[in-house]
Amino acid sequence: MKSRHKKLALIALVVVALGVAAVLVLNAFNSNLVFFFSPTQVANGEAPTDRAFRIGGLVEAGSVKREADGLTTRFVVTDTARTIPVTYSGILPDLFKEGKGVVAEGRLGPDGLFAASQVLAKHDENYMPPEAASAIEQAQKAQQTVAE
Fold first, then answer.
1. DSSP letter at 35?
2. Strand, helix or coil for residue 82
3. Which of 83, 94, 109, 128 could cross-link with 101 by S-S, CB 3.0 to 4.6 Å?
4. Count: domains in the chain
5. 120-133 pLDDT tens trace
6. pLDDT exceeding 70 applies to what percent of the chain?
7. What is the C-alpha to C-alpha distance for residues 77 and 70, in angstroms, rounded to an integer?
8. Is residue 27 located within the same domain as residue 69?
9. Do residues 80 and 114 both lie within one domain?
10. How many Å apart are CA 133 and CA 146, to the nearest integer?
11. Measuring CA to CA, which residue among 21, 144, 26, 137 is closest to residue 79?
């Protein structure tokens, strides 16, 4: 092989290696990507049924029910327009309370029950996750538009 052919082969090999690396990185990124949906979006069928996603809003007052096993909790997440029932098995954050902001990550079952694998609660008196605050604001605007 001539020197020129060796250089071209090396360049081609580097380009192929970079292409394979890019495909692997993008595939890993896509499989770990988790989207956020409001209860209204979930109720309208916009949320995926085949993969995990996050749902956020307020924990509806009077909806928190603890099962006899001490770990399983059922509650309802609302954006003031629609509600989605959620079940979670595990220890809830200390700041988890009715009427406060929450983001739950998990999957939606065929029965419409959201099975959460992780629950995140607000961290101080004035904080609400930006996605949840935006979803609640949009739902309130939609209710005002319908009422008018």
1. -
2. coil
3. 128
4. 2
5. 986 655 666 677 77
6. 91
7. 20
8. no
9. yes
10. 20
11. 137
